[in-house]
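Re: beginner question about structure tokens

> Can someone show what the tokenized structure looks like for a real chain? I only ever see the sequence side.

Sure, here's an example I had lying around. Input first:
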Amino acid sequence: MAKFNLYTAGNTSQRALIELRDHRIAFPGVACDEPLLRGCNQRDWLEQLASLGIRHLIVPLNGAHEDACLFARRHPAEPASASSSMQPVLYDLEHRDEGVFVRLQFLIEAAEQIGILVGLSLFDATSQSGPLRREANEQAVALEDMLTVRARTRKGTTVIRARNLKREKVLGAMNAAVDWVGPVLRGHRGVWASIFRGKLLGAPDGALESDLIRRMAGQLRRADDAQDKPAGPWIVAPPQSSLHAEIGSQCAPFVLTDAPISHSSAGYDTAPEQRTGEDRRPAVCWLAARRDLTAVRGTHRSILWQTVMQGAWPVVSFRRRELEEERGWKDLAQVATFGRHWLSHGYVRPCPEVLQHMAAARADGKVFAATDGSGRYFAFFRSSVRKGLRLMVLPGTYRYYWFDVATGRGLDYGDGIEGGRDCQVPHPRSTRQTMLILEQEELTDALTSW
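And the corresponding structure tokens:
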């Protein structure tokens, strides 16, 4: 059998959902504010990311690091506390930091030239860091001031008037941030923005986010825009939202979620943010927005592939210094390679019914399955396959590929497999985590097309 692997196998004749500079963009990516920090060589940083095969970067704005905050700031005279190495900073929510926007403009231009998809996340919905904390800004307001229901002002109700005034200040700051970022993105390819990262806890409804999304869409729109925008700029709308149709071509062709990933079959049938009907937008799961990064990195490779099998592409938080220290960079690159060569349109959904004959393994979280809805099935095995493999797929004739997910090396290949309720697939002798790709023979043979 001739040697093959993930990047030499795969039907790449189909046009990718997003293509930049003749590069097929896969959704697995990195979330990091490092390219916006003062002193960072942005082009070198992006080129090193692209050399790994990862071409998707999310930059979290208005977070813990002051160099990635949009608002003007000053450092009070009081010294930093002994328990913190960070110098105290106080933000002015009525003015912007021009230095951040200069670095942001350079970053977007460099990414566009290299062919990297860049997303900007404006606010941390948890309010655990950044300028929208009461003690972190001169206006003494916080994001939670927006989460209280606005009350009518009556004579003598001083508390209500003060509360409404705080709401107006927070809303004014958020509107200003949208108005500042929109013109920076307008006219560029391969860029998108989202309003919140994380869950907006305590929000009475989604009106706040929806209003900001509409405002951003208006900022991104130009008079000469075409109806179809295959490369942005875009604004990300929540899954299953009416905004997808309302803002039209400004809406991103994918959805963003930070829904927790199940480790067993308990939540597998109800995978996060399943798309129904005609909404077949790929989903991007921002693992970095969760608060259990230690657990994510503890079983990093399994978490990444489980995320894919549950219908979403993973984005994980990394910094450049971890490039040599963390195996996770290479694991993420393998997932990106898989998406680029086997799922160019990006859409994948969980398909647990394929594993009906493997109830025990599925219940223990040892195997996960998915499909692209177009004749391909995928199964990820967290441990070696020791018994005969029986699957339940649609009738037809199939070919199969086995891959080592750690290295991307092809392990076995064959064809002439009969589908149906009892589809038996030969399995390789491997002690590592493996991926099975089963596709109908009506599709072009990947090993003869690359």
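Each token stands for a local structural state, so reading them left to right follows the chain. The radius of gyration is 24 Å.
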